[in-house]
Design brief:
- The chain is an alpha+beta fold.
- It has helices spanning 10-26, 31-51, 110-119, 122-198, 203-214, 227-233, 241-249, 305-342, 394-411, 417-431, 507-510, 518-529, 533-538, 540-552; strands at residues 2-7, 55-60, 70-77, 89-94, 221-226, 253-255, 266-268, 279-284, 292-297, 352-359, 370-376, 382-389, 437-444, 450-456, 462-464, 470-472, 492-495, 501-505, 561-568.
- Helices cover 44% and strands 19% of the residues.
- The strands form 4 sheets. Strands 5-9-8-6-7 form a 5-stranded mixed sheet, with helices on both faces. The protein has a 5-stranded antiparallel sheet with strand order 10-19-18-15-16.
- Strand 15 and strand 16 (470-472) form a beta hairpin.
């Protein structure tokens, strides 16, 4: 369907506008689209009337059976009447459904036309109603937005409060983490310092290490006052009054111009010796009485209370380490004194030189197990022995003395080295079932070129020939003395020549943890081979002294060392000419 209107004046424009609105409503154009169509058409028609001339409005709508639901409006100037060159104006709206077109005739009566014109704005009224509804909806949404804003403000307030609480929690967590790190640092320092202090068994070294541990992190100066050392010196520098009070009461004291507030510490006036410097005086406690007093000055103006608690605990541990070191040194001195008292003086035998060396261990209480002896039997034979008792300290020294005494008693009957070791084995097994020993016995007979020897679990003797060649006497030895086993220890013999040297020794001379014992025996053999024969004849003691340093240069000295050298004089006659016996008579 197509409708056409000729528009020359306002009345024609009103009729065309009203007819277009009615036709659009008949074809189901939505209200808003109809309003837009009428408004756009009115605006364009006003422009056309302003320009003058005759204009034609074409309105083309779909037929009832047509499926194309579009309504086309076109305004063009009538040929020969409108302004030349004006382009056509057109617009299109969508129809929801096709319908029969109304007659579209508008009456010519002005009143009717005015009424119809007013009626043509039904869409505008509906639009205004819609707009009023939308305004109400906008007002509702505006109120809802206001309430939402109020909620957002309240939420912001809650978020601010939560943020403040979170910041406070973070601050508390940082503080707790800082305190935990400080506590961990103190515990780590306390553990490391305790390990350093207890690693030494020399109380002077422990006292020297204390300032190195504490300065400068926990103290600016450290003074250790030991009562026993002061007694030995009879005179010492004056001590602060707080240190004297700490020594008398056994409680830590803090001397400063204001209270320190340190837990477990008594406050005292500032020291007259140094009034400007705070002092912390901590006694060195033991189970009996304090050993002394540790006096500290702070690294800054004062101590943190937790640092003071840690320093008091470190002082207690240092006191235990010093006390243990003193006990160890006392026991070591007793054991060493007993050991040296039990070691025999070597006898003088014509044609046979003897030289012995005993070196106590320098690390740990490892002295007391090694021993040597040399004595004559009733038939004039000279027995030389070197041995090692398992264990260390006073107990090993006492057992060594008992073995030495038992060996001398058994030797009165004139037994061979193997027989003597067999008797010692039985003796030790019954006397101390849980104690063992090793030993080597060598017997020299006057005028006899043969050396008889026997070993029980001990490193083999080393024999140097007069020409410098060395033999290791490693014939099968017996088992250790004292083990739960019946054994008969065999004798072995070797030919001696004038100028020969026999070396008996303990494992402390040759054994190293990382290498074992065999390399050490080889080193001893090489060192003995390098000795000068003239030096061995003239100065056997000096040769023994020269042997030890190179052999012990790599030793940790955690075991004591014995060395016994037996040297046949180069001018001695072992065959065909008698050699003087122990009593001076020829044999």
């Amino acid at each position: 369907m197509k409708r056409t209107w000729q528009i020359t004046d306002v009345t024609d424009a009103a009729r065309a506008r009203i007819a277009t609105a009615r036709l659009a409503a008949a074809y189901g154009v939505p209200t808003l689209e109809r309003t837009r169509l009428a408004t756009a058409l009115s605006a364009h028609l006003r422009q056309c009337l302003t320009k003058g001339g005759t204009w034609r409005l074409d309105l083309e709508a779909p037929a009832p059976a047509d499926g194309d639901a579009l309504l086309h409006a076109t305004v063009t100037p009538s040929p020969g009447t409108g302004p030349a060159g004006d382009p056509p104006w057109h617009t299109t709206v969508t129809c929801s459904e096709a319908a029969d077109a109304p007659d579209g005739e508008v009456p010519d009566d002005p009143a009717t036309l005015a009424e119809a014109l007013l009626g043509a704005d039904e869409d505008t009224a509906l639009t205004l109603e819609k707009l009023a509804e939308q305004e109400e909806l906008v007002s509702f949404h505006r109120e809802e937005l206001h309430q939402t804003n109020q909620g957002v403000l309240a939420l912001h307030g809650e978020l601010d409060a939560a943020g403040r609480a979170q910041r406070e929690a973070f601050a508390a967590e940082r503080k707790a983490r800082t305190e935990a790190e400080a506590a961990r640092r103190r515990l780590t320092f306390l553990a490391d310092a305790s390990a350093v202090l207890t690693a030494s068994l020399n109380h002077d070294e422990i006292v020297r290490r204390l300032p190195d541990l504490l300065v400068p992190e926990y103290a600016s100066s450290v003074d250790v006052w030991l009562f026993e050392q002061e007694d030995q010196r009879h005179r010492s520098a004056p001590h602060p009054a707080a240190a004297v009070i700490a020594a008398r009461t056994g409680r830590p004291q803090y001397a400063a111009d204001r209270p320190g507030g340190l837990p477990g510490v008594d406050d005292q006036p500032p020291s007259a010796l140094d009034p400007e410097r705070p002092l912390l005086c901590v006694p060195l406690p033991t189970r009996r009485a304090p050993l002394g007093v540790l006096t500290l000055s702070p690294p800054g103006e004062h101590w943190d209370p937790d640092d003071a608690v840690m320093l008091i605990e470190l002082t207690r541990r240092a006191s235990i380490a010093i006390d243990n070191a003193r006990r160890f040194e006392h026991n070591r001195d007793i054991a060493e004194t007993l050991q040296r008292a039990l070691l025999t003086d070597l006898p003088t035998t014509p044609g046979l030189g003897l030289a012995a060396r005993y070196l106590p261990a320098t690390h740990g209480l490892n002295i007391g197990g090694d021993w040597y002896d040399a004595f004559r039997q009733p038939d004039g034979s000279l027995i030389t022995v070197i041995g090692d008792v398992t264990g260390h300290g006073l107990h090993a020294a006492v057992m060594m003395s008992q073995l030495r005494t038992a060996l001398r008693a058994y030797a009165v009957d004139g037994g061979s080295p193997g027989q003597l070791l067999t008797q010692l084995h039985t003796f030790l097994h019954h006397l101390q079932p849980d104690l063992f020993a090793t030993a080597v016995i060598a017997r020299f007979r006057p005028g006899d070129p043969r050396l008889t020897w026997a070993a029980a679990g001990h490193p083999p003797p080393v024999l140097r020939m007069p020409d410098g060649q060395v033999r290791i006497l490693d014939a099968k030895p017996g088992a250790m003395l004292g083990i739960p086993l019946r054994q008969e220890i065999r004798d072995h013999t070797v030919h001696l020549s004038p100028g020969a040297t026999l070396a008996l020794y303990t494992d402390g001379l040759v054994e190293r943890r990382a290498q074992g014992i065999d390399p050490g025996i080889e080193r001893l053999a090489a060192a003995l081979a390098a000795c000068d024969s003239a030096d061995l004849d003239a100065d056997l003691d000096g040769s023994a002294d020269r042997l030890l340093p190179p052999l012990l240069s790599d030793s940790e000295r955690d075991d004591d060392v014995c060395l016994l050298l037996c040297h046949i004089d180069s001018g001695a006659e072992l065959e065909g000419r008698p050699v003087a016996g122990a009593d001076g008579r020829a044999r």
